[in-house]
Write a structure and sequence with these properties.
Elements: H1 2-20, H2 39-47, E1 51-53, H3 60-77, E2 83-84, E3 91-95, H4 110-113, E4 118-125, E5 128-134, H5 138-153, E6 162-165, E7 171-175, H6 205-217, E8 221-223, H7 236-249, E9 255-259, H8 264-269, H9 279-295, E10 301-304, H10 321-332, E11 338-342, H11 354-362, E12 373-378, E13 402-407, H12 423-431, H13 442-446, E14 458-462, H14 475-489, H15 495-506, H16 511-532, H17 563-567, E15 573-574, H18 591-597, H19 608-611, E16 614-615, H20 628-651, H21 659-691, H22 706-711
Parallel strand pairs: 1-2, 1-3, 3-5, 7-8, 7-14, 8-9, 9-10, 10-11, 11-12, 12-13, 13-14
Antiparallel strand pairs: 4-5, 4-6, 15-16
Helix pairs in contact: 3-5, 9-10, 12-15, 14-15, 15-16, 16-20, 20-21
Bound molecules: beta-D-glucopyranuronic acid.
The site of beta-D-glucopyranuronic acid has 10 residues, from loops.
Length: 722
């Protein structure tokens, strides 16, 4: 009896300990955790959420908003607000001008809210102190509901709310690189979240939760499949699967898009050609578009990777990208669909600097793309590297709709295991001033405000989402999904502010904890740059899987696939000359940059080897008397040291973070430190084998020889796709 009693008591204690944190944290809830508030914060929330007032009967979208508010309030305050029709003190009122004509009297900035914005305001209506969630549309109410829940989670004063927001970019979109077999190209979070086999019959709760997370950020489009796509994705059975997902996502304001394979008419219909100027091809795509819209009436459109890295395209028939894009645009136009045409194009037969090729290919076509085509341009001219200058197409095609593509999945920044917060990378790109006109930042080009003509605008991010319980392969990777969505909504947001928001919702609201985690996050991307590719190096990773260093690789079929093509390291110097004596890539930028980046002295140190080939022994002013070789080594060391410091700072947070998540992050940081050292050691060993310089005084020698690093093989590194 006593033993049993003891066992029971132990069980009770364990359960209590378990619920002390509300519930075990496994990352599934993302930033929508809505954990029970401490008693002192619960009361003000209860007072400000006594009931929900909303139009009845509610549409699916309004229902989604109401459900989210109920769930959030119930979890945080312990009391679920009832849905009522009459005003009462402390109610949350979801109002549009159509359902609540009195809105007009309240001098709310309704015009500024547009079709997607919202206002949150504490007001007194008919003698009742209520909180208005106001918008012109139900979508605005949905976004406003999430914004109010965010305000609660961030500890806002609920009695004095007054904020409003509207997205600056029209399309805020995820690009999944998911394959029909559920592998994910460059995905490090398990299988695809799309259980294709179960679709269209099985509509998993996970899809709804995915939609909730996206809606909370304002993401309004998703491309379901890989840009390297199979033609089959456009056949009826697969379209039905996509249609089922579209049904689930629709109430959350998310439109479904598909990647389309340019050669589909040949592969699916046996046409002898996919030539965009061939009338049969044209007719096939028109019929296909009609079929897609019959199944998915609000289908968004096609994303196309053409004539790039072996994918088929109009170039196979001697036609231009414009020919290809405009043909598809015509097929989609009757349905108001979009063609998103990728500018990530470089040719195996073009010996010119790869960084120049997209500009060379697309710039002459400025103004010749159909109005429902958006050209999707990667943030930099090479390929999602830890640091690149902004892509020269930004600002160079004023008469073309240009979208921006970021990579949220960390193919080049340590996969899922390294902690690298991408906010500073996104911010750096968005704030870059192209100097094509006054205040012509990438943000203002991409959000269209530079042109002011209401053109369609787009920011896309290659998703880092998979089947893993925590969605993204680690807790900190969730921050990259979050910051992507927030900055796509408002490209002017600061990486630091968004990090703080995310931390408060994800880990803790205690200022000391927020400060400490923010410091780790804000320095993390620069740490990766330093231990992988300092002072402007790029594309130095191992072959195919891109896991780990491979600066020595020089035997791949295409020159521009080799890291040596980019580092150009030899006995005398290192770096890619893109100035007047080299590839002249600088000339693709506005004169302001062409001139500055064209000269070593005026090139910022972080882009030095991107634009210049410099002598190992050159002493450059920003390096404070160090030679280029010394600076390079110094940066590798700084990168490793930064990770050591991140680890230490995280260890110190043990008392403040739930044990499971703390331990997991600590484990990842251990991997990161080991791999940072690997990058540092292997890179230094290689460059030293080439330049034959001694290591700077006091520097620790690499652990192994360059030969040993070259022998390392990682055949099963993740993310390879099918
Ligand atoms: C590269 C990836 C490759 C993608 C390609 C793309 O390594 O897997 O297919 O980008 O964006 O960075 O199309």
């Amino acid at each position: 009896m006593t033993t049993m009693f003891k066992a029971l008591a132990a069980l009770m204690l364990a359960l209590l300990a378990h619920t002390a944190h509300g519930q075990t944290e496994d990352g599934y809830d993302l930033w929508l955790r809505y954990r029970a508030l401490p008693a002192e914060a619960r009361q003000p929330l209860q007072a400000r959420s006594t009931a929900l007032v909303a139009a009845e009967p509610a549409s699916p979208m309004l229902r989604a908003a109401i459900n989210e508010l109920k769930r959030g309030v119930a979890q945080m305050s312990g009391r679920e607000p009832p849905l009522v029709q009459a005003l009462q003190d402390g109610a949350l009122v979801l109002a549009t001008p159509a359902t609540w004509p009195e809105l007009a009297r309240l001098s709310l900035p309704m015009d500024a809210l547009g079709q997607e914005g919202y206002a949150l305001r504490s007001v007194t209506l008919d003698g009742h102190a209520v909180t208005l969630i106001a918008a012109n549309t139900e979508r605005g109410l949905l976004y406003g509901s999430f914004a109010w829940l965010r305000a609660v989670q961030l500890g806002a004063d609920l009695a004095h709310l007054d904020e409003h927001a509207a997205p600056k970019v029209q399309w805020r979109m995820l690009n999944h690189w998911d394959n029909p077999d559920r592998s994910v190209e460059r995905g490090y979070a398990g299988l695809s979240i799309w259980d294709w086999q179960g679709l269209p019959d099985i509509r998993r709760q996970r899809y709804v939760d995915y939609a909730r997370a996206n809606a909370s950020l304002g993401i309004n489009g998703t491309v379901l499949n890989n840009v390297n796509t199979k033609a089959e994705m456009l056949t009826e059975p697969w379209l039905k699967k996509a249609a089922a997902l579209a049904d689930v996502l629709r109430p959350y304001g998310i439109r479904v898009f598909l990647s389309a394979r340019f050669s589909a008419p040949k592969e699916l219909a046996g046409l002898p050609t996919a030539d965009p100027l061939d009338p049969r091809v044209h007719a096939w795509w028109r019929a296909k578009a009609d079929e897609v819209y019959r199944l998915i009436p609000d289908f968004g459109g096609f994303l196309v990777k053409a004539n790039s890295e072996g994918e088929p395209g109009p170039g196979d028939y001697g036609r231009s990208h414009m020919d290809g894009a405009n043909m598809l645009a015509e097929a989609l136009a009757p349905h108001h669909g979009l063609v998103i045409w990728r500018a990530f194009v470089y040719s195996e037969t073009d010996a010119d600097d790869r960084a120049k090729q997209a500009y060379g290919e697309f710039k002459p076509g400025d103004g010749r793309f159909a109005p429902n085509v958006i050209l999707q341009v990667k943030n930099g001219p090479i390929d999602f590297q830890p640091r690149e200058p902004f892509h020269p197409l930004f600002g160079a095609m004023p008469h073309t709709n240009l979208g921006l593509e970021f990579q949220i999945t960390k193919e080049y920044l340590g996969f899922a295991t390294h902690l690298a917060y991408l906010g500073p990378l996104f911010e750096e790109v968005l704030r870059a001033d192209t100097h094509v006109a006054d205040d012509a930042t990438v943000a203002r080009i991409v959000d269209g405000s530079l042109y002011g003509d209401g053109r369609p605008t787009l920011i896309a991010g290659v998703a880092n989402i998979g089947e893993d319980r925590d969605w993204c392969g680690s807790d900190f990777n969730q921050a990259n999904w979050y910051v992507f969505g927030r900055m796509a909504w408002d490209p002017e947001l600061s990486a630091d502010a968004v990090a703080r928001e995310w931390i408060a919702q994800t880990f803790s609201r205690a200022p000391r904890v927020v400060d400490a985690i923010d410091k780790i996050m804000m320095g993390s991307r620069e740490a990766v740059v330093d231990y992988m590719t300092p002072i402007g190096l790029h594309h130095q990773m191992a072959t195919n899987h891109h896991y780990g260093p491979g600066p020595w690789v020089s035997d791949l079929a295409r020159p521009e696939w080799n890291p040596t093509y980019y580092n150009k390291a030899d006995l005398n110097g290192i770096g890619f000359d893109r100035g007047a004596t080299g590839s002249q890539a600088v000339a693709q930028y506005a004169p302001y940059w062409a001139e500055r980046w064209g000269r070593v002295e005026t090139t910022p140190p972080e882009l030095l080897l991107w634009f210049h080939h410099v002598g190992w022994d050159a002493k450059l002013a920003p390096f404070g008397g160090r030679t280029v070789w010394e600076e390079l080594v110094h940066r590798y060391d700084a990168g490793v040291q930064a990770v050591v410091d991140m680890r230490r700072a995280w260890e110190a947070l043990a008392p403040d973070i739930d044990a499971r998540r703390h331990a997991e992050v600590a484990g990842y940081l251990a991997i990161q430190e080991r791999e940072a050292r690997w990058w540092r050691d292997a890179s230094i060993a290689y460059f030293q084998s080439v330049n034959r310089r001694p290591l700077p005084v006091g520097v620790v020698a690499p652990a192994m020889t360059v030969e040993q690093y070259r022998q390392l093989k990682y055949s099963f590194a993740p993310g390879h796709g099918s």
